Amino acid sequence: MIRINENYQKLKASYLFADIARRVNAYAAAHPDRPVIRLGIGDVTEPLPRACIEALHAATDEMGQRATFRGYGPEQGYAFLREAIAQHDYAARGCEVAPDEIFVSDGAKCDCANIQEIFAQDARLAIPDPVYPVYLDTNVMAGRTGANVDGRYAGITYLDSTPANGYVPAVPPGPADLIYLCFPNNPTGAVATRAQLAAWVAYARENRAILLYDSAYEAYIRDPQIPHSIYEIPGAREVAIEFRSFSKTAGFTGLRCAYTVVPKTLQASDAAGQGQSVHALWNRRHTTKFNGVAYPIQRAAGAVYTAAGQEQTRALTDFYLGNAKLIREAVQRLGFTCVGGDNAPYIWVNTGRDSWEFFDLLLSRAQVVCTPGAGFGRCGEGHVRISAFNSRENVAAALERIAAALR
Ligand code: MLT
Questions:
Q1: Average of pLDDT values for 313-321?
Q2: CB within 8 Å of 293: residues ≥ 6 apart
Q3: Which atom of ligand 1 is nearest to the CA of 387?
Q4: Which of 15, 25, 35 is nearest to 401 (CA)?
Q5: How far is ligand 1, taken at its centre, from the CA of residue 390, in Å?
Q6: Quick one: pLDDT at residue 12?
Q7: Looking at residue 14, what is its pLDDT?
Q8: Rg for the chain (alpha carbons), in Å?
Q9: Cα 41 to ligand 1 centre (Å)
Q10: Rounded Cα gap, residues 380 and 374, in angstroms
Q11: pLDDT class of 78 with cuts at 50, 70, 90
């Protein structure tokens, strides 16, 4: 009989958010009279910006006319979108990123998951704890770890994010080849300062390592001192790949559009010690395994960069940040310490209790869904993540219910 990829057996039985959804659906089915408010998975609730909708409609109409119909587009994305990204997300912040260093895709999740394929099997990994589970799980699937013992995989350097370091891990004492970083952070909502990011870039340059920098939540940064891109740090073009998404910036979780920046100046070595272009490898992978994002979706993403789109997406992120502020203030009033919520849509609450027990308590007593910190790693124990993605009405109701349940 054909054999399975046994690395999958090292994984937890189900993906964190699938596990939570199963528990919540079971609760909802058993208690149809108690409506549940979901502040768990970070999924947007507000309608798409008007500018995006108009672009989506117009592009859809183009697809219905012989003269403007389009079949396969460039795998890497249409020039109009890559040029707008390069100009607005990078040149405007003083970062050097060329349009042909941008690869448009259908999600930062897929890109973060797939990127490891182009690196050696024995690449040494450094991964934060707590962490967005995709970085870790995809490397487990690829066979880069040993077994999971007491919640940790052998062969990984874990970068602990704790109250003691403000949930921003320092560089490790030993070497690593591939380092996953995410700021504003999912799940903690913590942000990294310029000096902290500069230390990571210096570490990567010294160790000839690569930083995999996930900045899917950069649109939530309001503190002008906090970098939005790793390329704001001098020297990062030789050591970093950056992942971005329209999901949380413009409400595209249901449309699917994101992009990855791979500078042409980034190299990794082959077995003979010769430097090879990482851009060329990713381009090879992308063109082989991906056929591009739908034209109307790319037009909708392009509309984010129009004057109206910029105003409307800013209003959208301001709205969720308004929710985040309410959540942050409410949990502090209840006597908990927390981070996040000011430059990020997540609030990381230090509950000081078992995180799954706290999750169950909020679900059963308040019918509010949060995400148990332990689901993101050992250092997440004692914490829960509350997402600001919901309507104002639901957030206000959830906070009242939580206060009543914990009284
Ligand atoms: C989350 O809740 O962590 C995110 O929604 C997951 C994702 O973006 O894939």
A1: 98
A2: 73, 77, 104, 105, 106, 256, 257, 301
A3: 2
A4: 35
A5: 14
A6: 85
A7: 81
A8: 21
A9: 6
A10: 5
A11: very high
